[in-house]
Amino acid sequence: MIVCPSCSTENEDLAVVCRSCKGYLQNRVVNLDLFTTVWGILESPRSTFRLVALSEHKNYALTLHALFGIAVMFTIFWYLRLGEVFGGLLETLIWGSLAGIAMGLLGAPLLALGYVLIARLLGGTASFRNSLALVAYASVPICLSLFTVFPVELVTFGMFLFTSNPSPAVLSPVSFYVLAGLDAMLMLWSIILLATATRTVSKLSFPKSLAHVIVLGGLYVGGLILLAPLFVQFFVLIA
Predict the structure, then answer these.
(1) Cys-Cys with 168: which of 99, 157, 185, 189 at CB 3.0–4.6 Å?
(2) CA dist 58 → 130, 144, 206 (Å)
(3) What's the mean pLDDT in 64-82?
(4) Which has the higher per-residue pLDDT, 31 or 76?
């Protein structure tokens, strides 16, 4: 709680204006700068997540959700070997990117809603807008993998990254497991960041915050598994 220095009224931690006297309790944050915020997430996550929650405009949240969707979609392409459906690498990348953007933007409100419900079930607080932004900015390491690890995977394996004849693990085992390990580390980093964001904003202990993220992630992955046959049918239909 924040106590107003003017009227001594107790306010919520994220309140900018006192609910009683309308005086300012902390600095007003109107907009977020993408590169400054991303660097802050990597360097000082707790204070940066608080800044994200305080901001009036959650700039670039949907952009990050779109990038996250692309990263997840290419993981689905790899897992389901969907490269075998398309005629070449360029076609695979185009459809993967378009489908990923759509999935990221459509999935954003569902993730935010799930975040809010789980936080409240665990005794925390969460708003829809903050949840949408926190999930987006916590996915920064996964989004960065699109511009770091993924290009190396494409150069190393080409179209074989998305096929099973041969699979990338058979084609170059050392490279595959090193790159897969980097992807796993970036995913783990995002999980820790989201738990940190939850602890900072939702007033949950770190164990509860981690449990929150595991449940949310489990529901998300479970949903993708259920939708996997539909993904295959859709891409077979359009290819």
Answers:
(1) 157
(2) 8, 19, 24
(3) 96
(4) 76
